[in-house]
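Ticket #229: bound-state structure for zinc ion.
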Amino acid sequence: MVDEKKLFVNIHGHRQANNVQEWVLRSLMASQYPPDDIEYGHYSVGFHPYNVGKFDEQDTLNKVRLSTENPNVFAIGEIGLDKSIDVPMDVQKRIFEKQVDIAEFSDLPVILHVVRAFNEMIEFMKAHNPSVPMIIHGYNGNREMAADLVKAGFLISFGEAIAKDNTKVIEACKEVPLDHMFLETDEGEMDIREVYFTAAELKEVSLDQLRVQIVENVKNHMPKFAGIF
Ligand SMILES: [Zn+2]
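RESOLUTION: The complex was predicted; output attached.
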């Protein structure tokens, strides 16, 4: 039995755990729901902006809705707004907002994909003030924006950028309070433990303190996680 306090929680990955101390929330595109191995993992399920226009809107939103009933689906995501792709912002916003409604209805946190749309996210937060945690994954913005996002009520997840000498993101990571922070691997090859080692250094805490804090954060913001320990 792994000590829950010593887990390396990976809040956003696209693979299975690769060491016994890792707990990973696997990100699944709604169009692929349900996966064959749903019983063996824990998932977030969402209609990603990349897939808008590629799959039927109603069908895909229905899959998101259906997924919330599965005990192994812990969050809605990744969903969000992306200005780097060729999908109209009003369509992205409509689909995003419908999924936040689903998250609120089912009391699940939201994992957010945000590309060049942080201001739109802050506006959304001000206008809608959702009742569920909103976690921005793979944060790659600067320190000032991170401070604004935390002030607006977002939680922020950092990935391999902090371990790859990305000065801008490193400064942002130093800015975000520990109780607002998560760590992840996303699609990268990096071991989650390496992300933790780097984050512990940046935050000037021990590795154990960091792990205990992040487990606490997940318990506080992800009710189904709290239920498995
Ligand atoms: Zn991802």
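RESOLUTION NOTES: The chain has one domain: 4-228.
TICKET STATUS: resolved
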